[in-house]
Amino acid sequence: MAESKVYTGGCHCGQVRFECTTDMAMVTACNCSICTKKGLHFVFMPPTSFQLRAGAENLKEYLFNRHAIRHQLCVDCGVDVFARGKKPDGSDIVALNVSCIDGIDLSKITMTPVDGKSR
Asked: Which N-terminal residues, if any, form the signal peptide (predicted)?
């Protein structure tokens, strides 16, 4: 089992900043249209493990398909930093774009394939 750690990060221009605690045990490699086009890889956590530290006023929400996931993009640089949604049981969840974590090396992360294209 992976160990939980505190991570910081943000968008490309630095206007949006966050801090979170997660174990990075499951990072998605989803094949849905948005993850494929944007190169998104998400780690999921409860909202209590995610804190937006700066830039709430710089976020724009993007919804598509069933409008189930509320993607949060920086209005200045356009980076999809995180998303808010619900788990199948109805509880709230935050999906963090792992690429936005400070100093992350995606080549060292094990990705879990997710077939979002078929949903």
From this structure: none
